[in-house]
Write a structure and sequence with these properties.
heterodimer, A: alpha/beta, about 30% helix, B: Rossmann fold, 2 domains, 13 strands, binds flavin-adenine dinucleotide, binds adenosine monophosphate
Chain lengths: ~325, ~250
C-alpha cells in the first residue's frame, strides 16, 4: 500500500500544500509499514528537490521536461500515471490547490479509481483501510469515507496537515513519460504586485461591507501589511467591485484555513463562514455586538472599524 | 453547434443541514433545492454561446426523479432539450462520471459545460472526470471564455495569477464565478418548461469503491470572548493574540 505524492512547484517554488501532503503521505505509509515516493514535474526543480528531501520520502521521481515548465494537464497526468505504475502506488496524493483540483480528477478517471477530494483528516484503521474526512454541504457536516478499493486518489486541503521533517533514502528516479497535449497553457499572467493568495496565506485580514466604501480598504491593506497577511473579502464587497474575485472567501469564493483570520465589518453569513471555518484563530471586528461572526470568533472587538483598525495597526507596529 | 450542460440540484445555501435519525444521511425533507450557482454560470454560457454561434443546448442531469426539477429550471432559463440519466440508488464520484460520460458519448457535442463544483459534495471533479473519460480537452474553473472556429481560449484563476489556455473542440469547460451573469427564468419560460418532454436515458452502473464510515456535525467552535469595545480594547486584543493564542510575535 505504498504512497505516491505529487509535490507541486510553480516557477521552481514548492507549494506548501505539496509538502503537507507529502508529510501526511509519510505518516500513512508509516502506519501501514510501507514506503513513500514524491514526484516533481517541470523544470528548475533543484530547490524543490531540496525541500522534498527534508521530508524524506523513500524515492523521488523526477520528470524534467521543458514542455512542462508550466502546468499542462495531459503532461502532468502522464507523469503521475507513470510514477504511480512504476512505484506500484496504492494511494496517490496531492494538495487541493487550483492545480490539484484540476489534476486529481483526471488521474482518477484515467486510472478508473476513486477520488476523495479536499480531505481534512485521514485515519488508517487496524485492517489497513483508510478513513478520510471531508466537509460537505458547505462544511455544515463532515463526511467520513472509507476506501474499500485501491488505488485511491486523495487531495488534501491546504493548511490542515502538519509538515514533518524526516529521514528517507530519497533515491532519485528520472522518468520520461510520453504524452500529447490536448489543451495548452499558453501564458501564465501574475497578478499585479505579486500579492499573496488567500489560499496560501498563513494570516488573512478580510474586509466586508462594514468598511462602507472601497477606499477604506486601505486600512485592511495596512493591517495586512503589518501582519504579513493576505487581504480577503466578503462577497458583498466583491460584487460591489471594491475588490477582485480572487480575494473572495466563502462558498462561491475560496476556502481558506489560515492560522489567523481577521473578519472586519463582515456579518458572518453562512456562505462566508463556509470558506473560513477551519481557520485556527478568528478575530472579529464589528460594530454590531449581535453579528453572527462573533459566534465563530475566538476574539472580538465591538466597535467601528474606522477607529479600531488604525489603533490596531499602531499597536502592532510598536 | 451542439452544446451540453450538466446540472445538479443542490440545497439552498441558507439551508440548515440536519442529520437524519440514524445519521445515515442528511434530512432532506425541509430543504429547498436550487440550481447550484456554478451550474447557472454553465447554463448561461451555453445559452450565450448558442445565441452567438447558432446551435442547440441540451441539459443533462444524472439522478433520481428529483433531477427532473433541475432540468425544468434549466428549461425555464431557455435551454432547448433536457435529458435525465436514470440513477438507481446512490453512486460515487467515479460511478457518476462514468454514467454521464456514457450518456454523452457518440452524441456529437462540440462543447460541454459543467459547474466547477456542486455546492453539496463540493468535489469539483465531475466535469474534469467526464472530459477525461471522453478523451477530450477539459479546461477547469474558467472565468472568461472565447469560442472560435473549432477552438476555445479560456482564462482560469490560479493562486497569485491566471492561466490562459487554448484547446480544440470538442471540449469540456467547467464554469467559475466571473464567467457571466446568469439570466433569470422568464414567466413564459417557466410555463413552457412545465410542458416540455424530458428524455430518459439508461446507463450501466458501476460498483461503489467506497463506504460511508460516518456523518457528523463539525466540532463546535468554543464560544469566543469579546475583548471589549472600540479602540480601547486594542492593546488587550494584541496581548491575547501574543500571549494566549500565540499567533503573532
Ligand atoms: C448562493 C450564495 C453564495 C454566496 N457566497 C458567498 C461567498 O462565497 N462569500 C461571502 O462572503 N458571501 C457569500 N454570499 C453572500 C452572503 O450571504 C452575505 O450576503 C455576504 O457575506 C455579506 O457580506 P458582508 O458581511 O460584507 O456584508 P453585510 O452582511 O452587509 O455585513 C456588514 C457587517 O459590517 C458591520 N459594520 C457596518 N459598519 C461597520 C463599521 N463601521 N465598523 C465595523 N463593522 C461595521 C455590520 O454590523 C455588519 O455585520 C453568498 C450568498 C448566496 C445566496
Ligand atoms: N449527478 C449529476 N448530474 C449532472 N451533472 C452533474 C452531476 N453531478 C455533478 N455534475 C456536474 O459536475 C459539476 C461538479 O460537480 P462536483 O464534482 O460534484 O462538485 C456540477 O456543477 C455539475 O455541472
Amino acid at each position: 500500500m505504498s504512497v505516491l505524492v505529487y509535490v507541486e512547484t510553480r516557477d521552481g517554488v514548492v507549494k506548501k500544500a505539496g509538502i503537507e501532503a507529502l508529510s501526511e503521505g509519510k505518516r500513512i505509509a508509516a502506519k501501514r509499514g510501507t514506503t513513500t515516493a514524491a514526484l516533481l514535474v517541470g523544470t528548475n526543480l533543484d530547490a524543490g528537490l531540496e525541500e522534498v528531501k527534508k521530508i524524506g520520502p523513500d524515492k523521488i521521481f523526477v520528470v524534467v521536461n521543458a514542455e512542462l515548465s508550466n502546468y499542462q494537464a495531459e503532461g502532468y497526468l502522464a507523469a503521475v500515471k507513470n510514477a504511480a505504475e512504476d512505484f506500484g502506488a496504492n494511494v496517490i496524493m496531492m494538495g487541493t490547490t487550483s492545480l490539484g483540483r484540476d489534476l486529481a480528477p483526471r488521474i482518477a478517471a484515467k486510472m478508473q479509481v476513486m477520488l476523495i477530494p479536499d480531505v481534512i483528516a485521514i485515519n488508517v484503521e487496524d485492517d489497513g483501510n483508510i478513513v478520510m474526512s471531508r466537509p460537505v454541504y458547505a462544511g455544515k457536516v463532515i463526511l467520513d469515507i472509507k476506501s474499500v478499493a485501491f488505488p485511491v486518489v486523495i487531495s488534501t486541503r491546504p493548511n490542515i496537515f502538519d509538515v514533518e521533517e524526516g529521514d528517507g533514502a530519497c533515491e532519485r528516479v528520472d522518468l520520461s513519460p510520453e504524452f500529447s497535449l490536448m489543451s495548452k497553457v499558453i501564458e501564465v499572467v501574475a497578478s499585479e504586485g505579486g500579492k499573496l493568495d488567500v489560499t496560501e496565506a498563513d494570516r488573512i485580514v478580510a474586509g466586508g461591507r462594514g468598511l462602507r466604501e472601497s477606499d477604506n480598504f486601505k486600512l485592511v491593506e495596512d493591517l495586512a501589511d503589518v501582519l504579513g497577511a493576505a487581504v480577503g473579502a466578503s462577497r458583498a464587497v466583491v460584487d460591489s467591485d471594491w475588490r477582485p474575485h480572487s480575494e473572495q472567501i466563502g462558498q462561491t469564493g475560496k476556502t481558506v484555513g489560515p492560522t489567523l483570520y481577521f473578519a472586519v465589518g463582515i456579518s458572518g453569513a453562512v456562505q462566508h463562514m463556509a470558506g473560513m471555518k477551519t481557520s485556527k484563530v478568528v478575530v472579529a471586528i464589528n460594530k454590531d455586538a449581535d453579528a453572527p461572526i462573533f459566534k465563530a470568533a475566538d476574539y472580538g472587538i465591538v466597535g467601528d472599524a474606522m477607529e479600531v483598525l488604525p489603533a490596531l495597526i499602531e499597536e502592532l507596529k510598536k | 453547434m451542439k452544446i451540453a450542460v450538466l446540472v445538479k440540484l443542490v440545497p439552498d445555501s441558507e439551508a440548515q443541514i440536519k442529520l437524519n435519525a440514524d445519521k445515515s444521511w442528511i434530512e432532506t425533507r425541509d430543504i429547498s433545492w436550487v440550481m447550484g450557482p456554478y451550474d447557472e454560470y454553465a447554463i448561461e454560457e451555453a445559452l450565450k454561446t448558442a445565441g452567438d454561434k447558432g446551435g442547440e443546448v441540451t441539459v443533462i442531469s444524472y439522478g433520481d426523479e428529483q433531477a427532473v426539477d433541475g432540468l425544468r429550471k434549466a428549461l425555464a432559463m431557455g435551454v432547448h432539450n433536457a435529458v435525465r440519466v436514470k440513477r438507481e440508488g446512490e453512486q460515487d464520484l467515479l460511478g457518476t462520471a462514468n454514467a454521464l460520460a456514457e450518456a454523452l458519448k457518440d452524441n456529437g457535442y462540440d462543447l460541454i459545460f459543467t459547474g466547477f463544483k456542486a455546492n453539496d459534495d463540493d468535489c469539483a471533479a465531475i466535469g474534469t472526470m467526464v472530459g477525461t473519460l471522453l478523451d477530450i480537452p477539459v479546461i477547469t474553473e474558467v472565468s472568461k471564455l472565447e469560442v472560435g472556429e473549432g477552438n476555445v481560449r479560456a482564462e482560469r484563476d490560479i493562486e497569485g495569477g491566471r492561466e490562459i489556455i487554448e484547446a480544440s473542440m470538442p471540449c469540456v469547460i467547467t464554469a467559475q464565478k466571473g464567467l457571466n451573469e446568469p439570466r433569470y427564468a422568464s414567466l413564459k419560460g417557466i410555463m413552457m418548461a412545465k410542458k416540455k418532454q424530458i428524455e430518459e436515458v439508461v446507463v450501466t452502473h458501476t460498483e461503489s469503491r467506497i463506504e460511508m464510515a460516518g456523518l457528523n456535525y463539525p466540532p463546535e467552535r468554543a464560544a469566543g470572548k469579546v475583548v471589549g469595545e472600540g479602540a480601547e480594547a486594542v492593546p488587550e486584543l494584541v496581548r491575547l493574540l501574543r500571549e494566549e493564542a500565540k499567533v503573532i510575535e
